[in-house]
Amino acid sequence: MNIFKLARANVRILEPYQSARRIGGGAKGSIWLNANEYPQPTFYMLRGCNLNRYPDCQPQEMINRYAVYAGVQPNQVLACRGADEGIELMIRAFCEPGQDAILFCPPTYGMYSVSAETFGVECRTVPALDNWQLDLPEIYTRLDGVKVVYICSPNNPTGNIINISDIRKLLEMTDGRTLLVADEAYIDFCPAASLASWLMDYPHLVILRTLSKAFALAGLRCGFTLANADVIQLLLKVIAPYPLSLPVVDIAEQALSIEGIRQTSQRITEINSNRDLLVEELAQCPCVRVVFPSVSNYLLVRFDPAYHVFQTLWDQGMILRDQSKQIGLSDCLRITIGTRLECQSLVAALKALTLSPST
Question: According to the UniProt entry, which residues carry N6-(pyridoxal phosphate)lysine (predicted)?
């Protein structure tokens, strides 16, 4: 029996998202700068959990704490399994398979397309401008039939903030016809650019957040969707009955305590400092062509292809993220900001690279 033939046609041809863990790094990987994780573990002690009982669908204390942190009301918060589940929930709740479309602006995060294609929803793309800002006139021409527009700010993998004035124009453009989802997975590194305070003014605005980045809890798989109450109620219809386990809720509540947020603030300061230092050092490496500005915990760097940076460093156990297949990102690698020592080791390895005699 050919099980493959029983699968849905769109799933048979689906190209899965190549996460950092799927790509791997070989047994000798020692410096992992490919997944935008915090480089060192956080330490939280599990408190008593009655694991014989199911958790609440939306644990109130955790919701309340994140609402305070984000500056919104509790009824504007939905807890989910990372921002990735928030991406999927929007499609499940609002898009008719084979009829509606989503729209996004590459180069950007790859899960928007994978989630849509999984559910048989059309993907439309409007490439970003050369400065990686929105092409608003072109977006406008492609909105017919689009139910959800995704924008990522800070954008992954480019690291830039989308112009606030352009986002406001896009919100006005989509009012009454399309939901606008702002993926703010990295906003903790640049909180002044958050759109959370705009929710009451724009009923079709939705914001995705996560504890994976600045909170250093990528392994927890805990995120939040911020939206007005009517959107939240629709998402609650399609979310799993128990999306977060009790241990996840326990650790998330600790991370969102006063002390947990203080530690997160310290991590942000550390990462921003290491990023600024790494920018300076990379500029001195002969193999580097461009270091693009970033407000997040990663840098996008264009390298001279003659140095074969990605594979050479991979073989040395330094794992970066190749972005060269994305539109406009030829010869580009994304580098997660690691510890100060990891950054220094990376720079030393790059400076040691030489061109082969045949180049």
Answer: 213
Statement to judge: residues 75 and 32 lie in one domain: no
In this prediction, residue 291 carries a pLDDT of 98
User: Is the same domain home to 184 and 234?
Assistant: yes
* End position of a domain, from candidates 259, 283, 317: 259
Ranges of the chain with pLDDT below 50: none
Per-residue model confidence (pLDDT) at position 11: 77
* Count of structural domains within the chain: 2
pLDDT at res. 22: 65
Within a domain: 54: no
- Does residue 357 fall inside a structural domain? no
Q: Quick one: pLDDT at residue 272?
A: 97
- Do 269 and 251 belong to one domain? no
321 shares a domain with 236? no
C-alpha dihedral (323, 326, 332, 334), degrees to nearest 10: -40
C-beta of residue 216 within 8 angstroms of C-beta of residue 38: yes
Looking at residue 349, what is its pLDDT? 97
The answer as to whether 49 is a domain residue is no
User: pLDDT value at position 14?
Assistant: 66
CA 45, 51, 53, 58 dihedral sign is: positive
